[in-house]
Amino acid sequence: MTVFHIAHASEWDAAVRDGEYRVSSRGATLDDTGFIHASSRAQLAGVATRFYAGDPEPLVVLEIDDGAIRASGVDVRLEDGGGQLFPHIYGPILPLFVTRVLPARFDPDGRFVLGDGE
Question: Could you say which of 30, 40, 65, 115 has the lowest number of CB atoms within 10 Å?
Fold first, then answer.
């Protein structure tokens, strides 16, 4: 299964340099919450709009192989978040877990758009 995580581009760049990503969500770390928030492809736009609309920092979407995460011993659980099941990653994201990094933005009408137009 593939899961997705929205990140500030600068935080992802730092993770690539440092060897692991430890941001749970905007303004919170893995140490703060105990897990990293992720989503399915279908949940991306809703999560982006709710938590990142109006954020001035450049965004990226990490496409993550949850099989690689699990193989490393890190747990990925589907857990309730407002009536939907969201994947939660119970450990850091290593760059080798990420299969693609997609630039993301909000268009002038406020719609979330992945850099490749998806």
Answer: 115
